[in-house]
């Protein structure tokens, strides 16, 4: 009779095949040792095509988009990533280390789940929740309350962003919110918190550009008892610890001094803070959302932003388009602000047709903030019941012609560059723009009529700063 342990060993592959989840097992050199049947079904990649190959090589050849093996081996900790397949499905990859008795990683077992359905359900549930919240709010206020932030999801770009936010709400991944000033980065950071399981815990916002450099460390990390004369004797908790269980929103992350960037990286990697004047690390459980209106890639190239922190932050990126690129949002936003401030200031005002046309034609350099301030200004200064285009033009600077926002000559660095170097810049812009729009290498490759591996190789080159 077989010993129960032998029985298990003999049937380990059948056992793995019986799981409803796709499973991939690799060793600590990243060599693929086994994938189960579900993995074949989910990824469409045959078992024989990956066995014994290096996971990194499979990425380079474009077979895999993401591998967790190097990170799990390096940190000895589980790691999670999201991936979108060429046919639009959303996969979540969760890599787990298997340790030997000395605590060294010997195997990495990665579970891959198709969460497309869950993400759709979550989106439906979150709109149900919104309705319920709005209903409760109305009941609470006797039906008179109005939201300052109308849930403007008119444009396609916004619908995509809201869907992305509800999907990211499920996870704890660090999110980088990009967008011009006034585009709504703060609004989206809060929304990420609201839709997450952390919503009942603190949302702590700190503006990295407004804290003086010498106070930044104690603000973020706190300090130990007796560190400073005259300071709180008991020591003080920093903002990172204060956000524990909740979300830490680091606004204007591009302004974070380099020394602080290194410390923040450690927090993201080790999930620990060490207060100033102490050597004892304290565990923290924060979700970090960072925002910037700078091009961090350029900041990295200039040596002003650490590339390792940048790659850590850009695991999930939300890019809010400027208002002029989502004109479908202008009028719903304008009407929302009008309703909100009319209610607040007890006024009964509306926008005339030509006022609406003027709003649509304007190029909004200050984005939603500018629109909100314009409506508020009109409300306060205009005594008429209907705001006309003329009333707006008092506040509106003369509209500039729409700038062409494709590949702008003046955004190229042409000074002293050869034609080849300039063309390389254009190529990079087109590829990065495609990636920003679709987030999908295969889609970009298809559109540009090249192989996926070509896009992959070029993007690797941009990351390395050699293009
Ligand atoms: N989707 C939206 N719905 C309602 N109001 C919005 C929306 N987006 C932005 N706003 C309004 O526009 C103003 C600017 O938004 P927010 O502070 O989020 O921009 P930001 O991108 O963080 O700006 P900055 O880069 O200057 O920090 C806020 O007062 C907010 O009320």
TrEMBL record:
Every PAS domain range: 8-56
Entry-linked SUPFAM superfamilies: Homeodomain-like, P-loop containing nucleoside triphosphate hydrolases, PYP-like sensor domain (PAS domain)
CDD domains on file: AAA, PAS
Alphabetically ordered keywords of this record: ATP-binding, DNA-binding, Nucleotide-binding, Transcription, Transcription regulation
Domain Sigma-54 factor interaction residues, every copy: 151-380
A Pfam family assignment: PAS
Keyword Hydrolase in record: no
GO molecular function: ATP binding; sequence-specific DNA binding
Segments crossing the lipid bilayer: none
InterPro entries: AAA+_ATPase, AAA_lid_NorR, Homeodomain-like_sf, HTH_Fis, P-loop_NTPase, PAS, PAS-assoc_C, PAS-like_dom_sf
Superkingdom, natural source: Bacteria
GO biological process: regulation of DNA-templated transcription
PAC domain residues: 76-127
Protein name, per record: Fis family transcriptional regulator
Organism: Desulfoplanes formicivorans
